[in-house]
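Re: that chain you flagged

S.,

Sorry for the slow reply, it's been a week of failed gels. I finally had a moment to sit down with the sequence you sent. For the record, here it is as I used it:
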Amino acid sequence: MEKETLNRYVEPYVEFLSINSLKMLEGLSSGSQIPFESILNFNGLDDLIFSKGCSTLTAVGKATAEGGTVVLKTEIYCIIKIKIT
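Prediction finished late last night. Pasting the structure tokens below so you have them in one place:
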């Protein structure tokens, strides 16, 4: 998924976040040293696309075969893989 497309989906999500939710995401970013935009995009995309789920995995950089970002989300009946370019 192109970053521009992702941002289009996530922008409306940001408007609904509380100050506490934004602070939590900032804390996750700071503690994990993952850029805030990446944390925000993942959470926004997850909340917009999936109403509920069983498991989620994100791998970035050297943790992926191509050095990019991979998001895996499992549901009871399906597995969805989204590669962000």
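What I noticed first: The CA atoms of residues 46 and 73 lie 8 Å apart.

Talk soon,
D.
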